[in-house]
Amino acid sequence: DMNEPASFVHGAVGGCRNQELNFPPYIPQLAYRSEGLLFKTLCMEGQQYLPDGSPVRHYDVHNLYGWSQTKPTLDALRNITRERGIVVTRSTYPSSGKWSGHWLGDNTAAWNQLEKSIIGDAKCEGFPPSSLTFSSKQNNPVWIYDELFSFIQRQDPVAWNSTFEGISRKVLNIRYTLLPYLYTLMFDANAHGGTVVRPLLHEFVEDKTTWEIYKQFLWGPALLISPVLEQGATQVNAYLPDARWYDYHTDEYIGVGGQFRNLSAPLGHINLHIRGGYILAQQSPANTTVYSRKNPLTLTVALNDSQVAEGQLYWDDGVRIGTC
Length: 324
Known about the structure:
It is a single chain. The protein is 23% helix and 17% strand. With 324 residues, it is an alpha+beta fold. The chain has eight helices and 14 strands. It folds into three domains: 19-60, no CATH class; 71-182, no CATH class; 183-318, Golgi alpha-mannosidase II (Immunoglobulin-like, Sandwich), CATH 2.60.40.1180. β9 (244-247) and β10 (253-256) form a beta hairpin. The protein is globular. A six-stranded antiparallel sheet has the order 5-6-7-12-9-10. Pfam families: Glyco_hydro_31_2nd (PF01055), Glyco_hydro_31_3rd (PF21365). Residues 1-119, 153-185 form the Glycoside hydrolase family 31 TIM barrel domain. One of its GO terms (molecular function) is alpha-1,4-glucosidase activity. This is SUIS protein. Belongs to the glycosyl hydrolase 31 family.
């Protein structure tokens, strides 16, 4: 956390010297764009030194700071525990994903940030969007359902009334039931560089309609998630790409896609659809994954137009290092 590196002094107490570096011609469209690159960090002309003694400007190495922490942290964790571990970092750079996960920082309980979380979490593990972006701060959004409960300081399910507790249990049970499918996706991402959470265009690249869809996403190639992103909404206008689709909750065949549909989305219901041609491995959840892994595995077989389906399952002890 705060490993960008971060500073609550913008640049330096006496100001920065190099305007061109601190206010370059192009700055990403961020809320603090007018503050320049020095916002909550060092002056870009700040002098740093590489291990061999070579001088570099902070401008050239800012994004490498968090990147350089990920592998040593993971190595230390493995050496201490002699088992697998998970490292997540707020600051990343290309190739960081080989050693760590990524979290998005201080998200708040706001509808616009719920929408942004889908775009920002194309590499995260959670389901539904509520679990995709969680930090340790108390101002996090709670969007397990189709409403945000931002007025509650404690945002764990047991802090709510029995109605919301029941909805939470229902949704989280779906997530844990799908862990074998998710685990297999994680293995594939680790071993072959695939994606776990992906935009629709990754699977339907020739369908130009999918190129601009950012309010829906897929788990792997087979599970389509269409969340409600507007307060008070009881329907979601979802695009179903050209394939056979089945309702996850009822197994009902809903027809061939290639069009938008208005889907009912009452409180506590998240629209999930399985793509024809795929097999999803599932397992009944228990109080912990140690016990759930002892439960029988089940398969959901969703046939395509040719009445064919295929799938994968990766399974190991979940503990040893290097089994992938």
